[in-house]
Amino acid sequence: MISIKQLNYALAVEKTLHFKQAAEISNISQSALSTALHELEKQLGLQIFERDNKKVLITPVGKQVLDKARTIMLHVDDLEHLADSQRLPLSFPLTIGVIPTVCPFLLPKVLPVLNELHPQTKLNIVEEQSHVLVEMVRRGDLDAAILALPYPVEGLLSMEFWQEDFYWVAPKDNPLTQQEAIHSKTLNHCELMLLKDGHCLKDHILEACKLPEQAANQGFGATSLNTLVQMVIGKLGTTLIPAMAIEQLIAQNEELTAVHLSDPGPHRRIAFVLRPNYTRMSSIEALIAVCKSALACDKTARLKHS
């Protein structure tokens, strides 16, 4: 009879493509893992892995087996945590993914409120790009992920909790910073710098501004908003940032000014993304309530000082 342990061992080998490493993360000996997988293949009557001295390959039929094994383990995990849905929200550890253009700006606002309202909460945060987080949610490696929409999340449930606009950032001596708002048509002449390809914020900005790919300065490969802002300080160009990043990146820097982008918004939407059959929904709903409260307070404070 096929066991849950055998499926876990097979998925560990798929993850590492290395029997010794798979055994280490499974906390068993390499020989015990190999024996269990040989027995699994014998029970199924097919070969999942091709082995030699240098590498491990997954056979085409093995790929199908591992896909089904992953689905089974997700259901097992949901079954094991079914009792959690009857417990108090946030009374058990959660692993949440957050994209880099949200993580460093959202967490300082949310965590103090979360610690005050739910001091028992144990959060593990994974910061990664959207495509990585979506796949981790699908695999069950994350309870949920915080993404900026629009982004393709077919088959997953998205729970939007915030909307925000973009702000144009430039040195204060730039004459256009005297305006209360700026339209994207003007940005064609502002040496606009954006994040490198792969960051969804770049796509959201190009879409919100209806700008062609060539409108962004391609001479740099910045991977963080902080780097872009430092480049603006160095008079290398200008950039756009989301509203939630203003306090951290701009408010404390007297050399810069942030001007609201006047193109119709909201320019991006922030949401939790999770599996439709997720059993800890009350905890995600509690996190959403905390995020909304913290961001609303931050927005009110920002408007008072603007």
Automatic annotation (TrEMBL):
The keyword Transmembrane helix does not apply. It comes from Zhongshania aliphaticivorans. Belongs to the LysR transcriptional regulatory family. One of its GO terms (molecular function) is DNA-binding transcription factor activity. The keyword Transcription applies. It comes from the Bacteria. Gene3D superfamilies: Periplasmic binding protein-like II, Winged helix-like DNA-binding domain superfamily/Winged helix DNA-binding domain. SUPFAM superfamilies: Periplasmic binding protein-like II (SSF53850), Winged helix' DNA-binding domain (SSF46785). GO terms for cellular component: protein-DNA complex. This is LysR family transcriptional regulator. Keywords: DNA-binding, Transcription, Transcription regulation. InterPro entries: LysR_HTH_N, LysR_subst-bd, WH-like_DNA-bd_sf, WH_DNA-bd_sf. Residues 2-59 form the HTH lysR-type domain.
